[in-house]
Amino acid sequence: MDGVKSIPSPAISADERSHEVDHPSSQVAHFGTEQPLRLDCGVDLTPFQIAYQTYGELNADRSNAVLICHALTGDQHVANVHPVTGKPGWWETLVGPGRPIDPKHYFIICSNVIGGCMGSTGPASINPATGKVWGLDFPVITIPDMVRAQAMLIDRLGIDTLFAVVGGSMGGMQVLQWTAAYPTRVFSALAIACATRHSAQNIAFHELGRQAVMADPDWHGGGYADQGIHPHRGLAVARMAAHITYLSDAALHRKFGRRMQDRELPTFSFDADFQVESYLRYQGSSFVERFDANSYLYLTRAMDYFDIAADHDGVLAKAFADIKTRFCVVSFTSDWLFPTSESRALVHALNASSARVSFAEIETDRGHDAFLLDVPEFFDISRAFLQSAGKARGLTGKKDG
Amino acid sequence: MSVQEVLPLNGATTKASDQYRADHVLVADMVKPGSKVLDVGCGEGDLLQLLETRGIDGRGIELSREGVNRCVAKGLAVVQGDADTDLVNYPDDAFDYVILSQTLQATRQPRVVLENLLRIGRRAIVSFPNFGFWKMRLQLLIGGHMPRTENLPATWYDTANIHFCTIKDFVQLCDEINVKMERSVALDLYGRPVPLNLPWWVWNMFGEQGVFLLSRGGGK
Q: Minimal CA–CA distance to B26: which of B182, B185, B203?
């Protein structure tokens, strides 16, 4: 069939993207062979680097640091223009001047996770042992590995206790891992749209995405970098499938319904007749401009392996025994990727540990993505939680608008 | 333990401020400073806020999502939950006090809830509307219909209150499950304590609500 467009090729070249991998436009913390990152898989990753952004000033007591943990396809550019895409920061609704997490009051840190592709060491980085891109030779990493690396960065920055650790989705998993691994270093924790383990359904969706990447002949068994290509079609399909899971039936219906894209009648082809198809293709193609395919495999795998209870004799409450951290857990009614039941299980475990926890379920039809969108009730809750924790932490006189 | 022994006790020294409800002030006065408190059915968090002003570490459970979200937006440590099903998740002796304010009558299993309160908390503070209040009795006796009052305006078919009791009933239940009543106060329709020197049946008649400080009784 002529005239049928497949997923468009990315407008940004692979070179532009891979430049950020090794030479990020962020600050970079280098860890030499004297400071290896001990990974759960048994490998010592060394040397390695972490790319990070900061906003605001660390106070004299070093007590106002807020760590933002990014989600699967996020990065450290939480509240600044993205160096590759030129788009605004991915969480500017929550982080920034006048927002609940305001650099006027807090020293805000956001780092690219280990295994990522925006400057922290990952499969797209150069393996110093071979001088070539790591590819699948990169060791498999876990959420605890990501957090261990972040803790090394926080040490490097001279911060003992974080005022808050904040994140949604995979970022929320990191928040929970922080509290389980370093309970005394986290004063307050804001865990949004997340879970203490990845469900079978979510693992299944991730496997679908990984298989889409691996089925692309340009993937070359993970060695595409040596060929100077990128499996953008497979990665775009993975992103399209994943993107559906971030929305909801109601949101898709409201946004697109069955409306046609720039046409009155169906073309009787497999072109993107429907607006929803066009939207998904756009999501797929814009994603591959900024994300590395192997990195997507590694990070989805890290989420799959996440299960806090399994690391604590199968008893979730043991992970949080006697914890003094103040928790705020937030879920969204239409989120079927990380449904409220997952948050409730976490809250039950925190209650069993007598932890101080607030838990709000916010009504919205916008699905999992709601945590990134403009949902005023969510901001009110985040702001109040952090203000209340700030009062307890002695960050006084810091009322923001 | 008889009704006479437990009812007229001290503790009726409160006055309603403009800001806080009379029964909340009364409950807050029963809590020792520096304690850890769980408020079950905390509504919009008014009592928790009052406790916070007194330096008490308060947590809350609330059934309605709107109530929870308003509490959390006030910076309170409140979770969405149901007194009937979620108290089992809390360990023994997790709190110094567990408060059940105007909620007992809305639970499916008041007796189990009460037992849980005193398992989780070393003490429990329970307040509830008294169905033995004279206005209630009169409406049933003269009017021949299910009572409705200013504080309980719902009709029988849409009320959330499914287990009404009188002060006398409650005292009997406490006796039955070996719960010790440390303090008890009845408030009239205007939130004023019913005078102490009156006999217990006056409380059961003129108390619009009862407020009880409970602890675990000795072994039985």
A: B185
Quote the CA–CA distance of A82 and A102 in Å, as a whole number.
Answer: 19
Binary contact (A352, B89; C-beta < 8 A): yes
CA distance linking residue B94 with residue A304, whole number of Å: 34
Does A347 lie at the interface with B, CB-CB under 8 angstroms? yes
- Per the document, the length of chain B is 220
Cβ–Cβ contact B97 with A under 8 A: no
Which 3-state string (H, E, C) describes chain B?
A: CCHHHHCCCCCCCCCCCCCCCHHHHHHHHHCCCCCEEEEECCCCCHHHHHHHHCCCEEEEEECCHHHHHHHHHCCCEEEECCHHHHHHHCCCCCEEEEEEECCHHHCCCHHHHHHHHHHHEEEEEEEEEECCCHHHHHHHHHHCCCCCCCCCCCCCCCCCCCCCECHHHHHHHHHHCCEEEEEEEEECCCCCECCCCCCHHHHHHHCCEEEEEEEECCCC
d(CA A370, CA A172): 14
pLDDT at A314 over 70: yes
For the segment A267-288, the average pLDDT, to the nearest whole number, is 93
Nearest CA of chain A to the CA of B86: how many Å?
A: 8
How far apart (Å, rounded) are the C-alpha atoms in residues B40 and B60?
A: 6
This model of the complex carries an ipTM of 0.82
Rounded to two decimals, the pTM is 0.90
Residues A45-66 have pLDDT tens digits of 999 999 999 999 999 999 999 9
Q: How many CB atoms lie within 10 A of CB A401?
A: 7
| A/B interface, count of CB pairs below 8 Å | 64
Residues of A in contact with B77 (CB under 8 A): 326, 356-358
Q: What is the CA radius of gyration of chain A?
A: 21
Angle at the Cα of A106 from the Cα atoms of A159 and A50, rounded to 5 degrees: 50
Q: Mutation target for A interface from B53, B72, B88: give the one with most A CBs within 10 A.
A: B72
Tokens (6 digits) for A165: 């650790």
Question: Which tens digit of pLDDT belongs to each residue from A286-308?
Answer: 999 899 999 999 999 999 999 99
Distances (CA, A) of A315 to A306, A312, B141: 14, 6, 55
Q: Give the C-alpha separation, A322 to B216, whole Å.
A: 25
Rg (CA), chain B: 17
Of A347, A357, A361, the CB nearest to B65: A361
- Asked if B10 contacts B183 with a C-beta cutoff of 8 angstroms, the reply is yes
With cut-offs at 50, 70 and 90, classify the pLDDT of residue A278.
Answer: very high
